[in-house]
Design goal:
The complex is a heterotrimer of chains A (about 300), B (about 280) and C (about 280). With about 300 residues, chain A is mostly helical. Chain A folds into two domains: about 5-255, no CATH class; about 260-290. Chain A has helices at about 5-30, 40-45, 60-80, 85-115, 125-155, 165-190, 220-230, 230-255, 260-290; strands at about 125, 215, 215-220. Chain A has a two-stranded antiparallel sheet with strand order 2-3. In chain A, α1 (about 5-30) runs antiparallel to α5 and α6 (about 165-190) packs antiparallel against α8 (about 230-255). The longest helix of chain A is centred in the middle third of the chain and has 31 residues, at about 125-155. Helix content of chain B is about 65%, strand content about 5%. Chain B has one domain (about 15-165, about 190-270). In chain B, a hairpin with a 2-residue loop joins β2 and β3. With about 280 residues, chain B is mainly alpha-helical. Chain C is mainly alpha-helical and about 280 residues long. Chain C has one domain (about 40-280). Chain C has helices at about 15-35, 40-60, 65-70, 80-100, 105-135, 170-205, 215-240, 255-280, and one strand at about 1-5. Chain C is elongated. Classes of the chains: A mainly alpha (about 300), B mainly alpha (about 280), C mainly alpha (about 280). Chains in contact: A-B, A-C, B-C. At the B-C interface, β1, α3, α4, α6 and α7 of B face β1, α1, α4, α7 and α8 of C.
């Protein structure tokens, strides 16, 4: 474990900051590429007759995909570290190679899905492929590099028993889960269905009718990334940053107390605090917004 | 409203692909191990990667057959269960000698896959006709992929070699010991998730009403070679430089060829191939 | 032939299959008892792995997942796949539990630490989902499956927007998520801890290691990878059971959990026995 508590706290804070950046970059990347559950609408739109110019990156959900990119970056870095490459160089090289793999997967996903929608007349837009892929790769690199660096710190500075590659896998899956849980509704409802009424869910009848003509001409995924980087991205970052920071903070500071139960008690208190905040937000929404008008009931 | 997936008849029958995949994977693994020991070098480790490619091609067709019935949760979960059951079978197979291990892998994976398939189909009552067979197949596929990647990274698939490195660079032994080995540094976790994504990606990416089998299989080969590339780079910690270079060259050549072919097939199948053109609304919209 | 992919599984139990699974479970446990000297380390580890797998399979039923409709505000729950969301929480919990195990804090402390880690991750994630829905999208949470929230007593119907099945995370879904994260973290850490004990015991002789300390990285990594693998097998089986989406414990689908428990029992027993045999034969 950590001998020097000050180093422990410092590394914890740094890891939390890295995790916040990772979460934000992950969410914006998955919105630029349109990955995960909102992508089902991008897939559905041509079948309902709405041809679009959105990048359809159907690799898998975000958790397994990010599990792969971060584990790959961490594993490659671990292999390079073993042949005595400088740590910074090893981490960077590993993440660059992982990003290249991600880029190739993105292009094959787009080509495959759009080609399989040929029956509905959805064309393959090569310029979308050329312009979106590099942007999504850039965001992915930020997310992967900060995550791998965070895992390296956990292993090297905080003394976690798991090897770097296994930490990469675990935190990659957690990053994808947290980022997609927070960012997907914002991208799906607010941006893809921007033409629907604000403050209500999308009615089933409107499925597939995503926004295709918007403020800057025909909408493409860069517009979506611009929008989600304003709120969905940063909030996903704070979410994942809090997860990593609180997990490390309660362990590093409080595990020495009561033979480990100090950390457990602090964890319980934190869960209760979040439960209260959640309940407050839920009640605030019900009181401030009020019920929906009962039009259809008549 | 869900996406319609049409079950298209025609193309190569699944049984053919299954036997071809299984046999080529086993042949590649044995070739790699045999040639390595015959020449007392590690330059033929890339055959393990080729075995993984064969397994991925087979796996993509299995997943296609299973997911056409609608399993409710999506395609990536099958990849996860494939590797989850495969890693267990592969690790017990590492306890046996090099000529017995692949057979043990297949036998144990069939047993575990059959149990999981029975659970999914009869206890959970998914009642999908191909569920039991598919779960068995994906367990074998997961195990073969992992054994192939292990062979490509370290040159062997015996537990002693995977858990300890006895390596030297330029004649100087490096203190890798147990901590830096394939299992010790958790490179096996990287191979795990590489395989899980690679096996489900071909069907997931080609999913749609205009699905074509040859395009999916070409994408499966491309995913396999793409997975071989980082494995080749990771083998730099376990194999000598000439072996690493051979692995990288084989992987890169295979990937370039299959990627190019895949793009050509996508171009053949797409409704239109436009560059910087506006949205073409269909008639009546 | 066109097949629309809707889940076709039946509701209800198959008594014959359930009986066969229990027989398989007893056979595996019996084999472990006979082959490895009764109530020893291996037997206890196998029981722990089975228990961990069952907790994981059960815990997945609590996690509120809405799937693709949730991403559009059409259904309540989190807009991610259920198996991988549970895996994210469980593995974050395993991270904490492994830390505690390394400090030699004992089985109970490590397992509870892992559980709290998973619960904390789900709490933060669910909180931010609610915050996004409330403050970023202006949508109150409403359930589509119950008229009144079982924990808070809030009525749900009038807060459901027209044409949707509900949206956001009602308080019961939040609580369900936290419970699911706790159970996932406990299960994952239990499997990890049990396998770690077996490997630390058996591997030094197997690998001809100079000291018992030297093989700890291999034991940790092997136990960790097996924990991830068995976690995913159980989580995916449970995800098949709830056919992808659920609102949590107040969802009618929750009553399907006995099937998942029986499946988890047999699957974890088989996988656990083979995992232990890697070092024990």
């Amino acid at each position: 474990m950590v001998e020097n508590i000050v180093i422990g706290i410092g590394v914890t804070a740094f890891a939390g900051a890295l995790a916040s950046v990772a979460g934000a970059a992950e969410d914006v990347e998955s919105d630029i590429g349109s990955q995960g559950d909102p992508n089902s609408q991008v897939q559905l739109a041509p079948q309902m007759g709405y041809i679009h110019r959105i990048f359809n990156k159907a690799i898998s959900g975000e958790p397994p995909a990010y599990g792969l990119w971060v584990a790959l970056g961490a594993g490659l870095a671990a292999a390079f570290l073993q042949v005595n490459v400088n740590p910074i160089l090893a981490l960077t090289l590993g993440c660059v190679l992982a990003t290249l793999v991600q880029g190739v997967y993105a292009t094959t996903a787009y080509l495959g899905r759009i080609a399989s929608l040929a029956k509905f007349g959805q064309p393959v837009y090569i310029d979308i492929l050329k312009s979106m892929t590099t942007v999504t790769m850039a965001h992915a690199f930020i997310a992967i590099f900060t995550s791998v660096l965070m895992c390296y710190l956990m292993n090297a500075a905080l003394g976690h028993p798991f090897p770097l590659a296994l930490l990469g896998l675990i935190w990659g899956i957690a990053l994808g889960a947290a980022g997609s849980a927070t960012g997907n509704p914002f991208y799906g409802k607010e941006r893809q269905y921007q033409n629907q009424k604000f403050g209500a869910g999308v009615p089933v009848a409107a499925s597939g009718n995503i926004v295709r003509y918007a403020e800057a001409g025909e909408r493409n995924s860069l517009d979506n990334g611009w929008f989600t980087a304003k709120l969905g991205g940063p909030w996903s970052g704070i979410c994942f940053g809090l997860i990593v920071f609180l997990e490390l903070w309660r362990t590093v500071l409080f595990e020495p107390f009561w033979a480990g139960w100090g950390a457990i008690v602090v964890g319980l208190i934190l869960i209760l605090v979040f439960t209260f905040i959640d309940r407050y937000a839920e009640v605030w929404a019900r009181e401030t917004f009020g019920p929906y008008a009962k039009e259809a009931a008549k | 409203m869900t996406v319609k997936v049409e079950k298209i008849e025609g193309g190569t029958p699944h049984d053919t692909i299954m036997w071809a995949g299984l046999l080529s994977a086993l042949v590649c693994i044995y070739l790699g191990a045999g040639l390595n020991s015959m020449f007392n070098a590690y330059t033929f480790s890339f055959f393990g990667g080729l075995a993984a490619v064969a397994a991925i091609i087979w796996g993509s067709d299995t997943i296609k057959g299973l997911c056409s019935y609608g399993i409710g949760t999506g395609v990536p979960s099958v990849g996860m269960i494939s590797l989850g059951s495969g890693v267990i079978a592969m690790l017990i197979a590492t306890r046996f000698s090099w000529y017995l291990a692949p057979i043990v892998l297949v036998v144990v994976a069939v047993i575990i896959g059959a149990i999981i398939g029975y659970m999914a189909n009869d206890v959970i009552m998914m009642k999908i006709p191909v569920m039991r067979r598919s779960m068995t197949e994906v367990a074998v596929i997961g195990g073969l992929m992992l054994m192939g990647f292990a062979q490509m990274t370290t040159g062997s698939y015996a537990l002693l070699d995977l858990a300890a490195t006895k390596m030297s660079i330029l004649g100087l032994p490096i203190a890798a010991g147990f901590g830096g080995s394939f299992i010790g540094a958790s490179i096996i976790a990287v191979a795990f998730i590489l395989g899980a994504i690679a096996v489900q990606h071909p069907f997931n990416a080609c999913l749609g009403p205009s699905w074509k089998q040859d395009r999916m299989l070409m994408l499966a080969a491309e995913c396999g070679f793409l997975s071989m590339l980082p494995v080749a780079f990771m083998s730099v910690a376990y194999l000598s430089l000439p072996a690493v270079i051979v692995s990288v060259v084989v992987s890169a050549a295979g990937w370039l060829y299959t990627y190019n072919e895949y793009i050509c097939l996508a171009k053949r199948d797409a409704a239109a191939w436009l560059d910087a053109k506006p949205i073409r609304e269909p008639e009546g919209h | 032939m066109t097949v629309t992919p809707k889940p076709t599984g039946g509701v209800g139990m198959n008594p014959m299959a359930n009986a066969l699974s229990i027989i398989l479970l007893i056979a595996i446990i019996g084999a472990a008892w006979i082959l490895f000297g009764g109530y020893g380390l291996i037997f206890k580890a196998l029981v722990a792995v089975i228990l961990g797998g069952v907790l994981i399979g059960f815990g997945v039923h609590f996690v509120p997942v809405g799937g693709a409709p949730a991403a559009m505000g059409q259904a309540p729950g989190i807009a991610t796949g259920v198996a991988m969301l549970a895996a994210g929480a469980g593995l974050a919990g395993l991270f904490g539990g492994a830390y505690a195990a390394q400090s030699n804090l004992g089985l109970v402390t490590s397992v509870v630490a892992g559980g709290i880690g998973g619960a904390l991750m789900m709490a933060v994630t669910c909180l931010f989902v609610v915050l996004i829905y409330t403050y970023a999208m202006g949508i109150p949470s409403a359930s589509g499956k119950v008229k009144v929230d079982p924990i808070t007593g809030d009525t749900q119907a009038e807060y459901k927007s027209q044409g949707t099945e509900g949206h956001g995370l009602p308080f019961s879904s939040f609580a369900g998520g936290v419970i699911g994260g706790f159970l996932g973290g406990v299960g994952g850490t239990l499997i990890y801890y049990a396998l770690l004990q077996v490997y630390e015991d058996k591997l030094p002789a197997l690998l001809s290691a100079p000291t018992a300390q030297a093989i700890v990285p291999v034991a940790v990594s092997l136990a960790g990878v097996f924990a991830v693998g068995i976690f995913l097998v159980n989580a995916v089986l449970a995800a098949y059971n709830i056919t992808g989406t659920t609102e949590g414990f107040h969802d009618p689908k929750f009553s399907r959990f006995p099937r998942a428990i029986i499946a988890a029992l047999a699957a974890s027993a088989a996988c656990g026995l083979v995992a232990i045999l890697v070092a024990a034969i």
